[in-house]
Amino acid sequence: PIGMMYVKADFELPGMYKELVTDELNIKEIEFTEDAKNFTQYKFKPQLRTLGPRYGKLVPQIASVLNTLDGNEVMRRFGDGLTVTFSVEGTDVELAESDVLVEVTQREGFVSETEKEITVVLDTNLTSELIEEGFVREIISKIQTMRKEADFEVLDHINVYYDGNEKIGGIIDRNKAEIEHDVLAEKIVQGSAEGYSKDWNINGEKVSITVVRV
Predict the structure, then answer these.
(1) What are the beta bridge partners of residue 206?
(2) What distance in Å separates the CA atoms of residue 192 and residue 197, rounded to the nearest whole number?
(3) Please, are residues 209 and 161 in contact by the beta-carbon 8 Å criterion?
(4) Where are the beta strands (DSSP E) in the chain?
(5) What is the pLDDT of residues 168-178, one digit of tens each?
(6) CB atoms within 10 A of CB 194
(7) Is 147 exposed, middle or buried (0-12, 13-18, 19+ CB in 10 A)?
(8) Whole-prediction pTM
């Protein structure tokens, strides 16, 4: 699961569509924002096709100055139809957006994509709660897979046994009600039993799970 998704756009989705997106993408919350500069950064290189004929040998120095500018402020000016001006070796330089090549970079922990006027940013920083939720969903998925492999009917109730991993056991204990509800389990206990058993590697944690039809 992902904690937050930020969207910069000239619209905002109604609540029912937000719920659809969060459910489909496994995201906790969507926030619409007017500014994505907190998540993206911009770097610029000279557009040789336009700057070469105008500034010639000064192009390398222009490139150096571009590396020192606040990328978000430059993009704001370009977005407002303005230019960027500075001086290089006593020569006034004026750059429009068409005079630079724009490279979008992302802050650590964030992934973004931009198309036309829409920017979508995912906060990929994982909290301990999100990590545990990821384990819970994997455990549920593994048990559901075992139900199918054991040819249980969709409405069959089961008992679940797990063994061999204290970390997985702790996660199951803390989230037992949710897991039992989703896999139709009467009980989930540590130990082993006669039934359909399988060894799993869940996010690097090895555990043995057994399912028994009630």
Answers:
(1) 201
(2) 9
(3) yes
(4) 2-8, 27-33, 40-46, 84-88, 91-95, 100-106, 110-115, 118-123, 158-163, 185-190, 196-202, 205-213
(5) 999 999 999 99
(6) 8
(7) buried
(8) 0.64
